[in-house]
Amino acid sequence: MSGLRLFNTKDEVTEVMSRLAEVEVDVQGLVEAHMETLLGVRFLASEYTTGPVHGGRIDSLGLDENGSPVIVEYKRGVDAGVINQGLFYLSWLVDHRAEFEHLVRDRLGVTAASQVLWSGPRLICIAGDFTRYDVHAVREHRRAIDLVRYRLFGSDLLGLETVASGSSGTRVARQTRRQAVARAAADVQGASMAELASAVDEALLGLGDGVNRVERKMYRAYQRLRNFACVCPPQRSKLLVYLKVDPKDVDLVPGFTRDVSGLGHHGTGDLEVQLRTPRDVERAQDLFRASYTAA
Fold first, then answer.
1. Fewest beta carbons within 10 Å, which of 31, 71, 200, 208?
2. How do beta strands 227-231 and 239-243 pair?
């Protein structure tokens, strides 16, 4: 965001100057009030105390689209300790799973509590800026960490930019992931489905840096700060991919793309893409990229 300039083009072109919040709590309050829209995370609690032994307060607790626990920490400007502070709380969270699941049960219900995914708890750090050492630390660390830079523009505009994303240590190398996907599909439907699943996996992971893959029982999510694609297990002759693309912005093609907004399905996204051949994967590349960019 440091290189982004925003202009108001109504009447005379004027620049809208960016600024930091007056105090940290202003950023926290804004994000907590709209957490699902901004981060794809359902809000659970604010200033959550970790008890007298641990002696701390987690800025925000939430649950993401895939059921992964999320800690959000905020800093008004640059703070070299934000990552370490977040990791300190993340370790506490992993050691207090029952307490977190009880909180989810109280806020979101029994079903959500039963589906909490502990394989990849996440830390999101939102700050005015980060140092190059912060970015390097995230890329080297074996945790799911997102660094998000914020800026306020004028009186009613908020900008968020993902500076760096790190993958949890439970997620394996990209080549290994492709092989695992291929083997799983081969067990189900043979070589053609294996090749198709591998091609989709490679296409989605290859869209850019910081793409994480999260395994759920009924789908596989591809995620930046939030999900941009969900892939369901292969059917007899096709693979279904759900994207965060507005179906109204797409020329729908019967048998290839479908508007599923308001319809129940596994994963997230309102645009269903039906893939049957490697050529379909090529046809879907622009849709994959649009969803990735939107995330």
1. 208
2. antiparallel
pLDDT tens-digit map of 136-188: 999 888 889 999 999 999 889 999 999 998 876 444 444 445 555 555 544 54
Phi, psi (deg, nearest 5) at residue 274: -100, 120
The length of the chain is 295
Judged by DSSP in three states, 87 sits in helix
Tokens describing residue 169: 């240590």
Residues 6+ apart with CB under 8 A from 47: 57, 58, 59
Helix (H) or strand (E) holding 108: helix 97-108
108-139 pLDDT per residue, tens? 999 999 999 999 899 999 999 999 999 999 98
Please give the Cα distance from 148 to 80 (Å, whole number): 14
Q: Are 232 and 266 in contact (CB under 8 A)?
A: yes
- Tokens 């490679």 appear where? 202
Q: Is the dihedral of CA 204, 243, 32, 264 positive or negative?
A: negative
CB-based contacts of 21: which residues, under 8 Å, 6+ apart?
27, 76, 128, 150, 152
Degrees to nearest 5, angle at CA 188 with 186 and 192: 45
Cα torsion angle, 31, 37, 40, 44, sign: positive
Per DSSP, the three-state class of 149 is strand
Which tokens in the block code for residue 14?
A: 């004027």
Mark 160-188 as b/e (b = at least 16 C-beta within 10 Å). Answer: eebbbbbbbeebeeeeebbeebbeebbee
Residue reference for tokens 């981060």:
39
According to DSSP, residue 146 is labeled E
Cα 125 to Cα 207: distance, rounded to the nearest angstrom: 23
pTM of the model as a whole? 0.83
